[in-house]
Structures are given as structure tokens and as C-alpha cells.
Amino acid sequence: MNGPxxxxxxxxxxxxxxxxxxxxxxxxNPFKGPYKEEAFAISxxxxxxxxxxxxxxxxxxxxxxxxxxNQSVNQTTEIPTKIYSAGGISLQYPSSWNITTDEINATNTxxxxxxxxxxxxxxxxxxxxxxxxxxxxxxxxxxxxxxxSFIQSFTNSGANIALTNTSNITVNGINxxxxxxxxxxxxxxxxxxxxxxxxxxxxxxxxxxxxxxMDLQSQDPYFSIILNSFKIQ
Length: 233
Prior knowledge:
Layout: H1 36-77, E1 81-86, E2 89-94, E3 98-104, E4 108-114, H2 116-120, E5 127-136, H3 143-156, E6 160-171, E7 174-184, E8 190-200, E9 203-212, H4 220-229, E10 231-232
Antiparallel strand pairs: 1-2, 2-10, 3-4, 4-5, 5-9, 6-7, 7-8, 8-9
Helix pairs in contact: 1-4
């Protein structure tokens, strides 16, 4: 991953309704004849039974949906976390993940946090990682250009990625831009990248959420912990 590398540990992986028919026959009234009242009562009973089944099914389905939503929320809130606080930023990250790069100097900061499997195995075919660059704006490039340099670090490593979507978001009340990229590495493993970049008090912040060999969305519970807790000190 591109960025200012300084003294410190760096074990990070390289890539980081259908149609209706008309009938000619006239409809027949099933309730004519000597058994009209009895037939009507039977039909009414059947109708009530069907309504009860329908309401029960809808109610059960709603309950299942609520349980699924609650389960999703709980999965995020119940993930154990650690706190990183240094270099003018703070955030929480999953406690099972590992900090593989932690470089800080007077003007720049670079951090990489990876899932435990890829952190311990640089050749892993599945990677989930977060990286942040904090770079002083010296006037030599815009925030957009600095983000492009970050993306260039992936293509320089042989990755083939393309921009798929951009949107405006806020990070801890600060306006930011989110860009999504997808593609593959030199071995044709699927890679996805979400980059969030912003400027505050003359400093560029670039947050990258990266996956290889797995879907980016599958790691949202972990990435959301980092993004929702990110603060500039």
C-alpha cells in the first residue's frame, strides 16, 4: 500500500398480474338451492380459517425479519474491540485483528490493521485489512490527487481495479467522499476496495477498507466498528 513508510513494524500483505382471462359462461351461484344456508356457513368457516393462517404467516415472517435485524446489530456490537490512539487519531478495531504497520512522524501517519489469518500469513489468498494515511497538506497536491496516489499503489503492485461508485458521506460529522473499487490481483483473485477520504485542518485523511478473495460486504461488521469509532484528536 502506498504512503510514507517510516521506522516501525510492517508485515502487511502486498495487496492490501399476471394476465386475466374472460370467460363466456355465466358464473353460477353456489348458494342456490335447499342447502344454501349450510353451504354458506361452511364456506364462511373455510374463509375464516384461511385468514387465520394468513395472519399467522405474516406475523411470523415479521418476527423473523425483526430477529434477523437484531441479530445483525448484535453481531456488530458484540465483537470485542481494542482501542488505537496515537498520532492525532483514535479508533476501535476488532480485538482479534492485528496492527501490522504503525508508522508515525511529525507530519505523516500510516496504520495497517489486518484480520488474524492474513496478518500471520502474507501469502494468504483471503485478506481483510484496514489502512489509514494521515498526510500533511503541503500544497503540492489536492486531496483527490493524494487519493489517486493511494489507488496507484495497488495498480503498481499488479492489481487491476476500476472505480464502480462514489458518494458523499460524513465521518464523525466531517464531510468526506467514499469511492468503491473492484477488480482482481495478478493471480485473478477478486479484490474490492472502499476508500474514504477527507480533509480537516490542513491534513488529508485516507481510510482504505480492502478485501481479497472474499466479499467486501461480508466484512462490514468489522469495518463498521473502525469507521464509526474513528475520531480526529
